[in-house]
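Translate sequence into structure tokens.
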Amino acid sequence: MPILLRPWTPDDADDLSRAARAGHDLASQFGGTDLTDASAARSFIERILRFDDAAKNWAIEVDGHAVGNVAATGIEFRHQTAWMSYWLAPAARGQGVAARALVRVSEWAFDAGLHRLELGHRVNNPASCRVAHAAGYLAEGVEREKLRYGDERYDVETHARLATDPRPPERGTAVTLRTEVPARRRS
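Result follows.
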């Protein structure tokens, strides 16, 4: 199963909306935005899933459909750091897709001159922890009650990978990464 990482386009709105409907646990990734409508998903892609100097969001495409996102945000070249994140639609989970995508984007970040990449996951999300470990990110500690979703607060385990850390083992599936942003279609 080849994986393509590429900037999101408005044409991905149906795939994003489908992921939001299938993965109710993704609501926190979308900041509470209701993406069940394709026009809302299109707006979310344009406003939030940006691809610019400070934030790079790659659609994770499998079999011609965007099934998730892997991102480097808070990109900062003075200290050579970025915050990494990822999510997948339920149907794409459990196959190593997120870990392979995270490894590939991490390689891009190191090649771009970054040194320290960080991520965090709720301590009650063991699947996200497995992705972080599989992508070579080492656990560094727990930040108590860091995230709030609704009225609940969650502890977050922080992980990091340094440019000098060993590369994680190859997982066999090719991951292609594109950084060119497609031209907008004229209406």
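Note: The two ends are 34 Å apart (CA to CA).
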